[in-house]
Design goal:
Strand content: 35-45%
Number of domains: 2
Length: 272
């Protein structure tokens, strides 16, 4: 069973070096990596070097992503899914780096050692997989790669039955599951903490170790047991947003118990 993993690597694309009546060279020291992407904005940089005896102009192309522009580029992944990013000339990430001379290109004279700055945008919901882009120029290109790994999180609300008076008692609560887009998952509920409890015969513990039997179901008819193994899991497919699952609880009638508060703790596990 895997848990909470989401990794992203990005390398940015540096385009053309246009020499003006002299020989110039452009060197990019290494690919640009954003590391792990968890949905928050990530900024990173990589160095480049210009060797030139005169003036020069470096452009950044739009890349190969569908609909890309010089201000918003895209890495393309599974089934054409895209992740947007930008390239900048400055460490404040405020001066766009494009291919419109002279407003969006990087101009200078002589030798220069500087950085390419890149920003991967926040709150992008896309399926796991590898995303790539290539930005071209007349003399060179720079490749970009992003990897998104499948990821799921789960949270739960308490289930309160209220007051039991030996009549059949029903109640329900909810779980919230958030998985990366298109990621299949299963949710299991364990037997709880009472000694001798099973997923089909759960028990709450009260005063002096007294036990109160109850059951948990995955359907509103209270007929499908919700357990912790294949066949009794509740399954779904992630959308990148929170999905709500309802847990239905039932306490059978005619249980002889003493007065007091009865509790149990159930562990909900998401498998993906």
């Amino acid at each position: 069973m895997r848990r909470l993993a989401l990794a992203v690597v990005l390398a940015a694309a540096l385009c053309a070096l246009k020499a003006q009546a002299q020989t110039c060279t452009l060197a990019i020291t290494s690919p640009l990596s954003f590391g792990t992407y968890t949905g928050a904005q990530i900024r990173s940089s990589t160095p480049f070097k210009v060797t030139c005896t005169g003036s020069w102009d470096i452009t950044m192309g739009t890349g190969t992503g569908a609909g890309a522009t010089e201000t918003t580029r895209y890495l393309t992944g599974p089934n054409g899914a895209e992740l947007s990013y930008q390239l900048y000339q400055d460490s404040a990430y405020s001066v766009n780096w494009g291919n419109t001379y002279p407003t969006n290109t990087y101009n200078g004279t002589g030798n220069l050692s500087a950085y390419i700055y890149a920003q991967l945008n926040a709150n992008q919901i896309e399926p796991p997989g590898t995303y790539t882009d290539t930005v071209l120029s007349t003399t060179t290109s720079f490749s970009l790669t992003v990897t998104i790994q499948a990821n799921c999180t789960i949270s739960a609300n308490a289930l309160s039955f209220g007051q039991y008076s030996r009549a059949l008692l029903k109640a329900n609560t909810t779980l919230s599951v958030t998985c990366t887009d298109t990621t299949p998952y299963n949710v299991g509920l364990n037997a709880g903490t009472a000694s001798g409890a099973t997923v089909t015969n759960r028990m709450m513990t009260g005063p002096s170790g007294q036990l109160l039997h109850y059951s948990l179901f995955s359907n509103s008819a209270y007929s499908t047991n919700w357990g912790n193994s294949s066949g009794s899991w509740v399954s779904g497919t992630g959308t990148g947003s929170a999905q709500t699952l309802t847990v239905y609880g039932e306490i059978p009638a005619n249980q002889n118990t003493i007065s007091g508060t009865y509790t149990d703790t159930i562990t909900a596990t998401v498998n993906y």
